[in-house]
Predict the structure.
Amino acid sequence: MPGLIERYRDHLPFAPEDPIVTLHEGSTPLVPAPRVSERAGVEVWLKLEGANPTGSFKDRGMTCAVSAAVREGADAVVCASTGNTAASAAAYAARAGLRGAVIVPEGKIATGKLAQALMHGARVIALRGNFDVALTLVRELAQRHPIALVNSVNEFRIEGQKTAAFELIDELGELDALCIPVGNAGNITAYWRGFQEIGHHPRMLGFQAAGAAPLVLGAPVEHPETIASAIRIGNPARWEDAMSAMTASNGAIQAVTDEQIIDAYRFLAEREGVFCEPASAASVAGLLAHGARGAERIVCVLTGHGLKDPQTALERAGTVVPCDPELTAIERAVLG
Ligand code: AN7
């Protein structure tokens, strides 16, 4: 498959002669989830966004944001990030030959994401403050300097990410509800825009971590906390857009506890063979905790790959079995 700008150019603000920065993102697997379906009592599909080139859905928005930055003549891109935006921005900046700078909350991003941003040669800045503080600062920075801001406040990010909705309809024809984790609320905004553009209106069921659930509480959270570090966000930039997607689609935005997130995270890995990161499992956790609201065919968006966060995985999984290099010991270890 080509990249998503080529695949969906009719729906995107790029002309054939525009420069395109792509890693052939999008066209990700949509797999049935028999065990989740059984538990939820409805037909559930998983959209594996971890299969994108840098391991998260951010690549959909980044191909558009970085292509637009090149078209505008920018020589650097910058973002605030809980990790995945940083990894994606760093990769696409490298691909485009632009400088990249990413601002992340110190000590609060998953190891894999940090490794990616560093490997791609971005300047990684660890801010002594959370994501919300980082985003405020970076918006100011981008106003003062000729640097392209590639957070989801950038319209091109939303444009790119809406293509996931097109893929779902291309493949399924119809769905009743979409379950999706919500952090800065760019992705729920993008899916809703995508569905609307092609005349579909599934319920948008967004889920926030209980310790970082401003949209559920109706007020910003000053000190957001959750094991799902990707969605540790207290004041989403796309607040209004997310609320209108929820209202217009007759959906809901609800909270899931860290315990429910980890339960779904492990269930997906152990019973469906699908390893996603904790934030992604919030979509399935939400469906299991809050139900489908009458929907029968549901897609849960698994936004990022499990390998992004090996530390959480190792803390939550079983242990390895030590073994002497002898047949009887191996027998005991394997069969015992
Ligand atoms: C795996 O990387 O905000 O509601 O800075 O990495 O569109 O923010 C990541 C967000 C869900 C929430 N799942 O999406 C960032 C960042 C994963 C994520 C979300 C994120 P939005």
